[in-house]
Amino acid sequence: MVTQIDRKKLFFAFSPDIVPAERVQQGEEVLLETHDCFEGQIQTSADLVDSLDWNHVNPATGPVYIEGAKPGDVLRVELLEIKIGDQASMVTIPGEGALGDVITEMETAILKRVGESVIFKDKIRIPIQPMIGVIGVAPAEGSVPNGTPGPHGGNLDCKLMRQGSIAYFTVGVEGALFGAGDFHAVMGDGEIVVCGAEIPGELRFRARVVPELKGLPTPFVETDDLVSTIFSAPTADEAAHGAIHNMAKFLTEFVKIPLNDAGMLMSIVGELKFCQVVDPLKTVRFEFPKWVLKEYGFSL
User: Fold this and answer.
1) Pairing label, strands 117-120, 13-14
2) pLDDT tens digits for 132-188?
3) How far is CA 215 from CA 68, 153, 219, 253, in A?
4) For the domain with range 3-84+129-212, which CATH number is right: 2.40.50.140, 2.60.120.580, 3.40.50.1820, 3.40.50.300?
5) pLDDT at 61 (0 to 100)
6) In the chain, where does the domain assigned CATH 2.60.120.580 lie?
7) What is the signed CA dihedral for 140, 209, 77, 177, rounded to 10 degrees?
8) What is the pLDDT of residue 1?
């Protein structure tokens, strides 16, 4: 049986104080229905951002209380299936994003989905690569708006948060209070104009605690062929520093590779990449191939 949570059960900030939308057992499958990041307020190219109710931006569905998840635990979230809607939207906003200093006009573009592509300006057919922008758990204290990324997750805008990946988060409160939203039909690294192809969708997932990974530097994500640390900070330099050092911590403390060897391997087979450079904090990831981990006899 799959527990289904309607997109009407939403929240706008990760917080220890939110009442759970649902309580589930570890390993139980859950289906989250999600709004797009505008909560459906943009439907046509005439719907500009100056008409938005900004109190209804970046909703996430949930939160979901995971029975038995306790502060300090590492939560393993399998992203089993991601489905997306038939229409995506994009916007430009003067003063916002990496090109906000030169963009002078607000604009909205509607991208219709045709099969496994979206169509940009009735001209460019772009293959879809559905991913999750906002995903995470409640912090131990305080309230973090969904638009802000951090150690708890949030608005990471990481392309690796896709179907088949496994996300890891450190639990901050009893039950974790997991949630997700802000899906993109496709998005480039950096999210240059503050948005990807914003679209509603569904996420089917299951979550459980992994005691053997306690202390893992999270947020952390695993795909079929790589692992990645994710770090958010006020500047891109600080975010890069955090992602690099967290990967070094993983390789030395969990894989048991000597630091010098880990550093040299990171230099020749690792990849430092931007997730987004447009949110209140910038987010960078460091990717490392799983085939090297296998050579050291390690698997997650």
Assistant:
1) unpaired
2) 999 999 999 999 999 999 999 999 999 999 999 999 999 999 999 999 999 999 999
3) 18, 16, 11, 9
4) 2.60.120.580
5) 98
6) 3-84+129-212
7) -30
8) 84
Choose among 52, 147, 35: nearest CA to 87. Answer: 35
Query: Which residues in the chain show pLDDT less than 70?
Result: none
Calpha distance 130→8 (Å, rounded): 21
| 77 vs 218: CA distance, rounded Å | 12
Burial class, 140, CB count within 10 angstroms (exposed 0-12 / middle 13-18 / buried 19+)? middle
Beta bridge partners of 176: none
Query: How confident is the model over 206-217, as pLDDT tens digits?
Result: 999 999 999 999
Sequence-distant (6+) residues with CB within 8 A of 85 are: 36, 113, 199, 200, 201
CATH of domain 220-295: 3.10.28.20
Q: State how far the Cα of 259 lies from the Cα of 5, in Å rounded to an integer.
A: 44
pTM confidence score? 0.97
CA separation for the pair 156, 56 (Å, rounded): 19
